Amino acid sequence: MEQVIKVEGMTCGHCKSAVEGALSKLDGVKSANVDLENKNVTVDFDDSKVSLVDMETAIEDQGYDVEK
Known about the structure:
Layout: E1 2-8, H1 13-24, E2 29-35, E3 40-45, H2 52-61, E4 65-66
Antiparallel strand pairs: 1-3, 1-4, 2-3
Keywords: Chaperone, Copper, Cytoplasm, Metal-binding
Main location: cytoplasm
Domain HMA: 1-67
């Protein structure tokens, strides 16, 4: 399953690495690709292993705001 999550506060390569890394550590996330220009992250994941709430929490734990 693929989900695009809007994220506020990402401005640089470090932000991109932090969000992609946090999501990639979650069991069930196959890939995470941040688009800094559009302020979002596209996540390919197995919804039987990880939920949208889990992914939003991982992003927020890195200090970024998820638009809901």
